[in-house]
Amino acid sequence: MSTGAQGQLIKRVTAVLRTISAHEPHGVTTSEAARETDLARPTVHRLLSSLTDEGLVDRDAATGRWTLGPELYLLGSLASMRYDITDLAGDVVRELARATGESAFLSARRGDETVCLLREEGSFPLRSHVLHIGIRLPLGVASAGLVILSHMPDPEIDAYLSRVDLVSEWGPQHSREELGKRIEATRLTGYAVNPALLVEGSWGLGAAVFDHRGAPTWALSLTGVESRFRPDRIPELGEALLDGAHRLTQRLRQRGR
Fold first, then answer.
1. CA distance 222 to 127
2. I want to staple 102 with a disulfide (CB 3.0 to 4.6 A). Which of 10, 22, 224, 226 is the partner?
C-alpha cells in the first residue's frame, strides 16, 4: 500500500471512530456512519468489521448499532495519564457554574477541533444545550474554539483558515473576514464571545487555558440564554472566565503539563 493510500485509510478510520464517539452511548448504524463520514456504506461496513476484530468497536447484535470498543477504553486510560486534566479542572469548572449560574465547560484542542471534556450545570433554570461532553467543533466555531484560535500565532491561524471551509457548514458569520473581526475583539478583551451564531438565542463566552509551553491547549467556557448575556454583564462573566483560566494555567505549569 502506498503512503498516500495509507494516509487515506487512516483518515477514514479516524472519521468513523469520531462519528461513533459523537453518538455514544447509543452508537450508530452503518448507514448513519456512512452518511456522516461521506463514505460508501460498503466501505464503512468493512472498516467497522475490521475495527471490531481488533476490539476497537463493538456491535449490538439486537440493534445493529456500533459503539466504541473495550480496546479504546484501555488505550484511552493509558493516554489519560498524560493528557487528562479534568482532575485539575473540576473544581474550577464547578466554581464557574456556581458563581455565574450558567453552564460551565472545559474543552481541549485536538488538532483542528475542540472536544468538550467537562460540563457543570448552573443554577439558572433556562439553559443552552449546544454543548455536551464529547462534542467536537472546528476551531473558530463556538466560544472555546474561537478563543483557542485567537491565541494561536498568526501563521498558524492563516494556515488553518486556508485549509478549512467553515462557511459551507457554519454559515457566513464564519467567513475569514468575520472570524478576523472576532479574533481581533477576542485579543483585546482576552475572552471570546459567541453571540448566538450556532443556535438562535444561545450565547457563549470562552477563555483560553495555556500549557507549560504557552500554547492555548484548552478553554473554559460559559453558555446560556441571550437574556443572561446582557452587554453590561458580559465583562463580569469574562473576568470570571479569565480568572478561572489563569488559575488552571498556573496549576498546569506547576505540574509541567
1. 11
2. 224
**Quick one: DSSP state of residue 28?**
B
Choose among 48, 10, 14: nearest CA to 31. 48
Query: Which residues of the chain, if any, have pLDDT below 70?
Result: 1-2, 77-84, 124-130, 256-257
CA 83 to the chain's CA centroid: 15
Residues 208/147, Cβ–Cβ less than 8 Å: yes
Looking at residue 80, its pLDDT comes to: 59
The count of C-alpha atoms lying within 13 angstroms of the C-alpha of 230, restricted to the half-sphere facing its C-beta, is 4
Locate 90 and state its grid cell: 473540576
Nearest to 48 by CA among 28, 24, 63: 28
Contacts of 109 (CB under 8 A, 6+ apart): 139, 148, 216, 217, 218, 219
Q: Crossing angle for the helix pair 41-53 and 30-37, nearest 10 degrees?
A: 110
> So what's the pLDDT on residue 45?
93
Angle between helices 176-189 and 142-150 in degrees, nearest 10 = 80
Amino acid occupying residue 136: R
Look up the CATH number of domain 84-254.
Answer: 3.30.450.40
The pTM of the whole model exceeds 0.70: yes
Q: How far is 130 from 140, CA to CA, in rounded Å? A: 15
Q: Which CATH class is domain 3-74?
A: mainly alpha
Buried b / exposed e over 207-238, threshold 16 CB at 10 Å, is: bbbbbeeeebbbbbbbbbbeebbeeeebeebb
